Amino acid sequence: MSSTISVPDPCLLAILLVCQTREGSGPELVYHWPPDPLTYSNPSKRSDWDATTDDYDSSSDSEDYSSDNDDDDFGPVSRNKLDVSVHGPGSKLGRIASTKSDHEDSKTKDSTLLGLDEDGLVALLAPDRSWHKRKFELSINDLTFVGRPVFAKHDGLWRKRKRAKAAKPPAETSDVDTTTEDEDGTQQTPNQDQSSKSQLMMFHVVFVMNPPPLDHSYRVKEMYDNVIKKFSRALQWVQVHNEYVWKQAESLHSRRRQLLAASTHSRKAVMKDLLESSSLAKALMSVFNAISTSRIASVSLGQNVSMSLQIPPVTSTSYLPSLTEPPIPPGLWLTTATETPSSSEDLKKQTSSSTLELAKSYTLLLKSPPHRIAKDVQVAGGPLASHLPKFVAALRPTKSFFKLTNTAQMSLPDVQLLARHLIYWRRAIAIPPLHQRDTYIVSPNADFRKLREACRSYEAQFPSSLPSLPRLLNLLSGIPRPFMTLIPSHDHKDIYMLVLAWLMRNGWVTQLRTFAYVRIDTEVKQRSKEKEREMRASIAQDAKIDGANDIKKDDASSNEPNGTERPSFVSRQSSDGRQSLKNGRMINDKGATLIMSPPKASPEESRWLNYLHNSTLRDDDHHFSSLSNEEREEIHRYWPNLTKYFDGSTALESVPIKENLKRKLVWSLYGKLGLDFDRGVEDSKGMNNSIIVTIRHW
Amino acid sequence: MSIKAVIYSRFDPQEGPKIVHQVPEDSISISGSLDTSINLSSEVLLSFSTVSRFLIPRQSLCNNLVCLTSPPSTPDSSPCIVVSYPVCIKGEHYPRNEFIFNFALVLSPPDTTDVPSYKSVVTKLAHLMRGLEEQTRFLSDDVSPPGTGKIYSLCETLIEDLNNYAECMIPIDEVNTLNIKLFPTLPNPAPVKAWHVPLFTVRIESLMDENWDLTMQRVIPFINGVNSVKKIALLADADLKLTKSCVRHLLYYGCVLLLDIFSFNAIYAPTSEFTSMIASDSEMQAECARYVNTAFEPARQENAISTLDVSSSLKSSIAATTTATVDDDFWPLTACGDVIDGVGVVQLFANLRQGLTVRDWYKSNSNMLANIDLRRFITFGVIKGFLYRVHRYAIQTNGLKVDSRNEARSRSAGVSLGKQTIDRENKGSKNRKTMPLTSFLDGTHSFDEVCTYYGISEKELLRRLSQTHLGEVVVLCR
């Protein structure tokens, strides 16, 4: 399920503006776009699974399948057809095709809209006050109408009489949902036209969607949270402050009546004409045009209020679906390196220091050339416009934010803010810094269908002395090697790193990251048990001598290395320790154990880890017997720094930056602990006794 | 318990829209603004005044399926969904010449309810009631007070049976019965290709009977997790296209999984699910050990492997605990006679990587793999989803060059032409023209696909690819 959802699919068919006035003439459809919603060909490609008929020997395969099942109530649901079979004999929707053409160019008197009776529909789209500022959702057959109606207050006013602090217009650019928008839209400027008892009682921007049944609630929620709510709030703001919606509605209404009276215009022409005369109509159109094609809409409501809206796309996934599951969009970045926040929710959140810590080992990969972004930023204006160009110019995909803060003299919070802005508005993605010692593979999700096209742009961008794109991908297809093995000489390094950034940006490659667990073999278990027994015995002896048996015994158990350091972990064990408990019962005694999370280790696991840590200094231990004393001391020293990352979900590649250690040192330590990509599970002596088990994936 | 209430409402010529029956009673507050005195008890789902215009809409909007997400009746309650199908019947014998009624279901919120499956229930109910009304004035003649009568008890039975048994069979009169069954909404099945390998997740023999589709009956014996769809079609002497749709049907109902063609030349590597699955799940390690241990060969059960669905994994976990307590002998032995424990299994999986064929992986781990069925070992990982197959693709580089844009166009035209002719011949006779190898060399056709198409081995394919007239051919893996 989650993977179908990674495909952007706004399912948007139309936007309607319904207003209700005080005069009692009933609700009215003031404007809608597009003029003829059901015939409007949506340029966004339906990512319909069945549509991919790349099957050479039976291209009509899938069509056959769904048509075979038309009568079958529970057969696969073909999603694009407005399936007629479900509707009753009198169904309007079943007759769309015919009614549509009849009404297409006729005058708009008792017309149909979306295959439904317009007046009846509009009556339903003006619900009562219980929906005020709430999500309104109505489905008629396959169409879903989603909106957030806004009502005037009971006294007919749009703003409170009370004085409040002077309101600012909503943020000019992008970050619309900033604090300037108050919850109720009840902020006010004190003096201007107190008299205004607006004629407008309610307005309701309705988004018409046709999401597939299985994704219904997800798609509707996505649209509501990202677009409908924000747009409706902005309109509420301008209505409260400038009577904007009412003025626009009134002018649209009268202009429309005028045009219809002239009776020379088709509905389409009327809609187009209105578009010229009203900024609200234009706003609705641009919201529709952009959102229905998964782009960013930038709209202006009146003279000084502008905003941007979008449904943020999924930029990466860690999940590679099986053949049976719905595919993810080809070319989508496949990675687990998504520790940095990139969703809109995170954008709102106050950045806590911990996320900053986490994200400083990341950097940004820009999706378009820096100068173009800088130019666009200048054009768009906004509060961040002055800082962004400098930031964008300083960015390097090979430099972490941490390094950037040093070179560009910017504070980490500033960098984070700007980075998030760029990520949210689709200008960049957050990646672990590219490094020639890291390993990159051809992404399992690379879109080979675009290969020809990509070759062309690759050749245009890079000198022909480099290997061709297919050759390069071929080099990355073998047994994974650090990227530097591809680079012929030191002079080529820069251009190869540029190529790597290009490959990443276009989803051709992904970083192969390494993860590790600590492996505790039976010998360690036995010895640590023995040692503990000795320790207990000696403590018990001491206790006897002291004659304070009971109290000391408690002390003894908490004196275990783990107990004193992290008392909280003991209590946490019950929630996450199911696995370790099970291990303890079933397999522990006979076989080895992997410690899934050293920082959350159970008491028993901590004893083992502790034993291992100490045994780095002992001569008799078989794990380290091949190492020199200095090497063992080194392992002993860095053991606490490293083991906490051996949890199978932290990439070993990120540890040097996180711990601020030299990469070379850290990797040589990994090697001494048993990391070796080239051999089998057992070493040359047929022994299986490495301390860490490593696994590599994206 | 997804259905919270059933409402039968109609348009009354004197009173306007009104609720005739509701089950359970008092789930909808009827009186509009007057009821300030009545405290909103928790059972009240919504107020009729809010939803009446949606339940009894204008005549022009009747005969459509109308679903409304109603606002919560109290701030802390969750919103509910009203699925309804207003019906309007015209007739001179009715006051105002029409009769409007609506049977609506009130459902709990969509994140806990499969709303689409109830839509067909409401539609069916509406059609049946319309028929009954037209035949016998079943609805308009019913004058029983709220909470009594035939229609009320029908609603009562409906809500109880659907909530408890997900189906109902309610006799209405001598000739009419209301038969309803809830079907879950399932996604469209994945496309099935000739080179996919289906594997049963259920015991199909126990489900199949002689009424099943004939092709299906022919095809099923050859589905074993080893044969590709094309091979199945050949073995069963069935049309490839029909075989595919059989497999797709089985896929839709979750009876099969799709795998890739296993060979020792194939490459497999771990996915990001590795940590959350085999590495942390000792039961899965044991399950794997039992599945792959060749010592069990004679007595092994083909369905010992469980898929990800709850019931079977539950079963397997029970099995795991019982066998674990009875004996631990399922762990395979190495060639030297040592036991491979769960961590050993994990290490073997972790040792698979990009660029390494199963053959090479076996070579470097031959001691440990001595008593392990390699195919089962690999497919276990693929089925669970913590391994993926790295496919090879051949690319003819001169076909991709910039200067050969025209050539490319003509080439692609040629391909599509080829497709057409094949389609035509497909329809006409079985004797089809094979496509030239070059049409597979654009990077979108995996080796599996090409080998299946020509019925050749990978070795043979590589030999053909090295033929000079193809120019430079580059092999990519992903």
Radius of gyration of chain A: 32 Å
Give the largest interface: A-B, 117 and 119 residues
Q: What is the total domain count of chain A?
A: 3
Radius of gyration of chain B, taken over Cα atoms and rounded to an integer in Å:
31 Å
Query: So how many helices of chain B?
Result: 16
Overall structural class of chain A, as computed from helix and strand content, comes to: alpha+beta
Account of the protein in words:
- The complex is a heterodimer of chains A (698) and B (478).
- Chain A is α+β, with helices and mostly antiparallel strands and 698 residues long.
- Chain A has three domains: 2-41 and 103-181 and 193-309, no CATH class; 338-431, no CATH class; 517-697, no CATH class.
- Chain A is built from 26 helices and 18 strands.
- In chain A, strands 1, 2, 5, 6, 7 and 8 form a six-stranded antiparallel beta sheet that branches.
- In chain A, a hairpin with a 2-residue loop joins strand 3 (112-113) and strand 4 (116-117).
- Chain A is elongated, with a radius of gyration of 32 Å.
- The two termini of chain A are 21 Å apart.
- The model of chain A is unreliable at 42-109, 163-195, 340-354 and 548-588 (pLDDT under 50).
- With 478 residues, chain B is α+β, with helices and mostly antiparallel strands.
- Chain B has four domains: 3-181; 197-259; 267-381, no CATH class; 393-477, no CATH class.
- Chain B has 16 helices and 17 strands.
- Chain B has helices at 48-55, 115-136, 149-165, 204-207, 214-219, 229-236, 240-252, 275-279, 282-292, 310-326, 342-350, 358-364, 374-384, 405-428, 447-454, 458-465; strands at 3-12, 16-23, 28-29, 46-47, 66-70, 80-84, 87-90, 98-107, 167-171, 177-181, 197-200, 256-259, 267-270, 387-390, 392-396, 442-446, 473-477.
- In chain B, the strands form six sheets. In chain B, strands 1, 2, 5, 6, 7 and 8 form a six-stranded antiparallel beta sheet that branches. A three-stranded antiparallel beta sheet of chain B has the order 16-15-17.
- In chain B, a hairpin with a 7-residue loop joins strand 7 and strand 8.
- In chain B, helix 6 crosses helix 7 and helix 9 crosses helix 11 (342-350).
- Chain B is elongated, with a radius of gyration of 31 Å.
- The two termini of chain B are 46 Å apart.
- Chain A: This is Nitrogen permease regulator 3.
- Chain B: This is Nitrogen permease regulator 2.
